[in-house]
Amino acid sequence: MKIISWNVNGLRAVIKKGLLDFLKSEKPDIFCLQEIKISPEAIVKENFDFPDYNEYYFPAKRPGYSGVAIFIKKTKDKDITIKNGVGITEFDDEGRVQLLESSKFYLLNIYSPNSRPDLSRLEMKIDFNNKILKLVKKLEKKKPVIITGDLNVAHQEIDLARPKANVSSPGFTPEERASFDKMMDYGLVDSFRYLHKDKIQYSWWSFRAGARKNNVGWRIDYFLTSAKLKKSIKKAYILDQVMGSDHAPVVLEIF
Fold it and tell me: Is 150 in the active site?
C-alpha cells in the first residue's frame, strides 16, 4: 500500500500547478492533504474531478484557512470509513484531523497547529499533541495506527538546516520537541528516520530568500506508525523535487 501526504498550501493553487498529473504519476492508494484552504460551498461549486479517487473533505469553518482531505483510490475503498474531527470544537472548527479506519489499521490525517512567531499558540499546540496521543492509545487497543501530516515541528537538529539559529523559533522550541519526544517515548516510530537514520532531507522551505533553491529547509511532515507496524514499513521517503507548494509530498509504502 502506498500512502502519500502533502501540505498543498491551497487546493485550488496546487490543482493549477499539476496535482492531477502528480496523482496519475504516483498512483497512491491513499492521498492525505493538509491546508486545503477551501470552504465546503466552494468544493461543491467547483466540482473538482479526480476520476480515480473518492474524495473526503474536512474544511475549516473560516474560509481560506487550514482544512484537511483524504482521497481514496476507488479500487481500495471498500473496507474504509472516514470520520471528520476528534470531537474537540477548538480543533474541529479549524479542520485539523481526519480518522480513516481500514481492516488493518487506523490512519490519522493531521494538520497540527502552528505555534506562531510570538508563540501565542504554543500551549494550544502542546494540548493538541497530548490529545492526539491520548486518541492513539485508545485506538491501538483495537488495531495499529498510522499518523501522517504536517506536524509543524522539526524533531531533532538533523531535521532543519539551521538548528542553532532556530532554538526558540516556532516548530523548534524545546516545548514542541519535548512533546514530540513524548510520542516517540510512547513507542511511535518515525518511519523516515527509522529507515534513514542519518539522512539530511527536508519537506518544507520558507518562501523567503531563496530557501528552497538553497535547500535551507525543515522536515516537519511525517509518517509515524505504531511499533507493531515497524516491520511492515517498506519505504519512507520525501519527494523533494515535486513543486506546487512550499511543502514536499512525503510517502510511506507499507505491508
Answer: yes
